[in-house]
Amino acid sequence: MSIQQNLLDIKSTLPEHVTLVAVSKTKPVPDLMEAYNAGQRVFGENKIQEMVDKWEQMPKDIEWHMIGHVQTNKVKFMAPFVSLIHGVDSLKLLEEINKQALKNNRVIDCLLQIHIAEEESKFGLDEEELSALLSSTTFKEMKNIRIVGLMGMATFTDNQNQIKKEFTHLKSIFDDYKNLKSDPSLKDEQAKQICNLKSISMGMSGDYQLAIECGSTMVRIGSSIFGGR
């Protein structure tokens, strides 16, 4: 199967409101160009340097999503062009993104990563940390970031019930904040402005259909498009 055919097959199963992020990490530019020529415009990378290299070589109408864990000292390299940063898991990282966005005269969209898995290795905020971050003065003073949604990764398991429970949990947190019900300190206009939740990024090659059933609006798919690593 060609990359183009894989892409078209997957797209035909996705509802209209779901964004497909083609996870292109470790894949060479010609592979990405095959996906690009088949109409794909959103690509996800997990290493900033690799993403910068590809951005320099490829058409400029591509939306680059940073889907890996982000080190603060690397933010400056992607700040000129990154469309969405998926894994924001600390106030310190947000401050750096805000600072670099300001230098580039941009507002950078971010997803806050919520820890929903049972594995310790996954990054992310718990609900208390999320609430503390969103109600902090530092956060409310940031002018160059926009929180457009939440992201979470389920436990790496074959247990569909557990995955479903974790996805549903993320969706309920998302709904609470979308309605700003759960945190009275978020009622002010500024917090609403920087917390314009519309995306919920959950689901990868193995579990994206379940994720969509649970309310995902953005799925990250790599091996099913480009083949194994």
Q: Overview of this structure, please?
A:
The chain has eleven helices and eight strands. With 229 residues, the chain is α/β, with parallel strands linked by helices. An eight-stranded parallel barrel has the order 1-2-3-4-5-6-7-8.
What keyword list fits this structure?
41% helix, 11 helices, 20% strand, alpha/beta, 229 residues
- Overall, the morphology is globular
**Structural class given helices, strands, pairing?**
alpha/beta
Supply the number of helical segments: 11
Helix proportion? 40-55%
How many strand elements? Answer: 8
Mean pLDDT: 91
Approximate strand percentage? 15-25%
Order of strands across the widest beta sheet? Answer: 1-2-3-4-5-6-7-8
Outline the biggest β-sheet.
Answer: 8 strands, parallel, barrel
Radius of gyration: 17 Å
Q: Helix and strand succession? A: HEHEHEHEHEHHEHHEHEH
Low-confidence stretches: none
- Cα(first) to Cα(last) distance is 16 Å
Brief account:
The chain has 229 residues and is an alpha/beta fold.
Write the layout of secondary structure elements.
Layout: H1 3-11, E1 19-23, H2 29-37, E2 42-45, H3 48-57, E3 63-66, H4 75-78, E4 84-88, H5 91-103, E5 108-113, H6 127-135, H7 137-140, E6 145-151, H8 160-178, H9 189-194, E7 195-204, H10 208-213, E8 218-221, H11 223-226
Parallel strand pairs: 1-2, 1-8, 2-3, 3-4, 4-5, 5-6, 6-7, 7-8
